[in-house]
Structure formats: structure tokens, C-alpha cells
Design a protein that fits this description.
By secondary structure, this protein is an alpha/beta fold. It has two domains: 1-58; 118-369, Metal-dependent hydrolases (TIM Barrel), CATH 3.20.20. Helices cover 48% and strands 9% of the residues. The protein contains 13 helices and eight strands. Helix 5 runs parallel beside helix 6 and helix 8 packs parallel to helix 10. It is globular and about 50 Å long. The N and C termini lie far apart (167 Å).
Length: 370
């Protein structure tokens, strides 16, 4: 019995050992297979990763070697490709001829005035204004202000000729001496000034000489000034002078037959002095440029001393703006409107004389005001 038990125990032990051995072998096999599967999965992932990276690298290479994308530009007309020109020894055709700019059409007379028309007897269209206002724009300013004619002198004289070419029926040209180094302060010392004046008067239809400045009565003794006075008398045209009463007297003393248009009513001379000068010299006329603000008293009425001048010498006074610098052109309409403040207070017949009739009697152009 003991022997049987011993055998049974040995059998069980062997079986257990065999089972354990089987389990161990199976476990090793499973581990190996698992490791193989894991290796296979890892290798597959590596291959897949390599393939993806390869594709990306190829794409990057393709992008790097491809032409860059064009930057968006505004649309432009499509131009059809042209065939290359044939090889030739012939000369290229001449460039096209550019037609000359047509001459401006003269402005027609103003057909209707909305208010009392004005003959502006003190206008300058000098070089500083040329690049700001064209001749056509200057003429339009006249029209906007119901100015039918204008007496014009310019520095240099070309400005006057430009306006005259634009609207000859509206412009009364005066020959001004200022050009180059000849200025308002020293023109009478400029070399060749008299020859320059003669050249102007021989080539253009001027109705006067000036505006020019005399800074003292002593200037009248200078040869250039005396030649200028004689030239005006010989041609029976006007001297347009910016000066004081003493210098006007000196000019008449030198040449009693001179016809003087006195700028600014003497500028700083009181109206009583202007009136006395006009009493003494029947060939003396004056414009009211730069005096428009002095004429109106603080109460808004014409100052009494100016009213006396207007009534006594109503036949020899005119309206003037004096556009000597460009800002005066910018405010041209306002300057003319300021003159209307005193014209509106005068009796209608005197207002018409000062506004335009006196100037028409001197320089013509009455058809502009009919």
C-alpha cells in the first residue's frame, strides 16, 4: 500500500512538473510571439512614418523647386502678345506730330449785370499769380464781380499780354517798366530802361505807362523819369503814377501837358488834399484802390470828407482793386464788394460815373456796359 502511494505521489509530481514545464514553455512562446508582434508593429509604424516623411520631403522639394506664387496685383488690361519685330535695317518711323495748343477763345462781353457794373482801373497780373490763377480764371473773377473792363499793368509785362490775349475786349493794357532787376524802388536807375519802354510801346497797343513809383519829387529830375514823361506826352497816353502830391506837382511842373492817373488817390493823402490837387490840375484823375476801407466811417456811412470829394470831382474818380500780390486775387470778389458799400450810398448818377462811366470816357469800351 505504501508502495502504491509512493508511486501515486511520484506520478503526480511528475505530472505537475510536466504541467509546470508545459506552462513555462507556453509562456515563453507567448512572450516571444508577443515580442515578435510588437517588433512587427513597431517596424510597421517606422515604415509608415518613413513613407509619410518621404512624401512630405518630396512635397517640400516640389514646393522649393516650383515657381513662386504671383503676388496679387490690381487688374490691368490684357495685352495681346506681339510677334517679335522682323530684323530690318530700315530706320524707325518718326514720332507722331503733336498738335499745338489752340489759342484761347476771347471771352464774350458780359451780357447782363446783376448789379452796378464796374470798370476796375487798378489791376496787376504779375508773375507770382501766373501759377495760381490762369488768365481764364482771372477773367472769370471779373465776370463773377460784374467787372466789365480792367486797366492792367504787370510785373513783368507778359502778364498783361496774357490777359489781353484771353479777353482783349475786357483789358486796357498799360506798359509797366518793372522787369528783371528793375523794381519799384529803383527802376529809374536800371540800365536800358528807356529803350525797354520804347520796345514795349512799339509792339503792343498800350494806352498808358505805369503803374510806376516816384518816391520823392527829386526823382522827377532823373533822365529816365523825364524821358518816360516825354514819351507819354508825345504819344498822348496816360502816366499811371504811385506817389504823393508833391511829386505829382513836380511832374506837372516839368510837363504841363502830361495826363496823370494818380494811383490810390495819393495812398496816404487825405481827401482834402486830393480835392485841392484836382482843383489845380484838370489833367489829373485818380482811383480809389486801397482807400475803400477809409471811405466808410465807423457808423457805416461815407465819411463826410470823402463825400465832398465824390461830389466835387465826380467826373475824375474811378474804382480800383490793386491786385499787386496773389492774396489780393484770392480776395478779389470781397474787395469789389467793399467798394460797393460806398457806391450804394451815392446818388445813382454819381455812382455810375465812379463805377464805370468815367473810365469808359478815358479808355473806351462802353459796349461792355450797354
Amino acid at each position: 500500500m505504501k508502495t502504491i502511494s509512493t508511486c501515486f505521489i511520484n506520478l503526480i509530481s511528475k505530472a505537475t512538473f510536466a504541467l509546470l514545464l508545459l506552462i513555462i514553455v507556453a509562456g515563453c512562446t507567448i512572450q516571444v510571439e508577443g515580442e515578435q508582434l510588437e517588433n512587427e508593429r513597431f517596424e510597421s509604424e517606422q515604415i509608415a512614418s518613413a513613407e509619410v516623411e518621404g512624401v512630405e520631403v518630396e512635397e517640400q522639394l516640389d514646393v522649393a523647386t516650383a515657381a513662386p506664387e504671383p503676388t496679387l496685383q490690381p487688374a490691368s488690361p490684357t495685352v495681346a502678345p506681339t510677334a517679335p519685330p522682323p530684323t530690318s535695317t530700315a530706320q524707325p518711323p518718326p514720332p507722331p506730330t503733336v498738335a499745338p495748343t489752340p489759342a484761347p477763345t476771347p471771352t464774350q462781353p458780359i451780357a447782363h449785370y446783376d448789379q452796378l457794373p464796374i470798370f476796375d482801373t487798378h489791376v496787376h497780373y504779375s508773375e507770382d499769380a501766373w501759377s495760381v490763377f490762369s488768365p481764364a480764371e482771372i477773367i472769370q473773377k471779373f465776370i463773377n464781380s460784374d467787372v466789365g473792363r480792367a486797366m492792367v499793368s504787370s510785373s513783368p509785362d507778359e502778364g498783361t499780354r496774357r490777359l489781353y490775349a484771353q479777353a482783349p475786349e475786357m483789358i486796357v493794357p498799360f506798359a509797366r517798366l518793372y522787369h528783371g532787376n528793375a523794381t519799384s524802388s529803383d527802376w529809374y536807375f536800371a540800365e536800358g530802361i528807356y529803350e525797354y519802354l520804347q520796345g514795349l510801346l512799339e509792339t503792343h497797343p498800350y494806352q498808358g505807362i505805369g503803374e510806376f513809383h516816384l518816391h520823392s519829387s527829386a526823382n522827377v529830375t532823373l533822365p529816365s523819369v523825364q524821358n518816360t514823361i516825354r514819351e507819354a506826352v508825345a504819344r498822348d497816353i496816360y502816366l499811371f503814377i504811385h506817389t504823393d502830391a508833391a511829386s505829382v506837382t513836380a511832374v506837372f511842373n516839368f510837363e504841363p501837358n502830361a495826363k496823370i492817373f494818380w494811383a490810390h488817390a495819393g495812398m496816404s493823402e487825405p481827401p482834402e488834399v486830393v480835392s485841392a490837387m484836382m482843383d489845380q490840375y484838370p489833367n489829373l484823375w485818380t482811383d480809389l484802390s486801397y482807400r475803400e476801407y477809409q471811405i466808410i466811417a465807423p457808423d457805416g456811412q461815407i465819411a463826410p470828407e470823402w463825400m465832398k470829394l465824390f461830389i466835387r470831382h465826380q467826373d475824375r474818380i474811378t474804382v480800383g482793386s490793386d491786385t499787386w500780390i496773389t492774396p489780393r486775387w484770392r480776395g478779389y470778389e470781397q474787395t469789389i464788394a467793399q467798394h460797393r458799400l460806398y457806391l450804394d450810398q451815392l446818388p445813382p448818377d454819381i455812382a455810375e460815373k465812379i463805377a464805370f462811366r468815367n473810365a469808359v470816357r478815358l479808355f473806351g469800351g462802353g459796349e461792355q456796359f450797354d
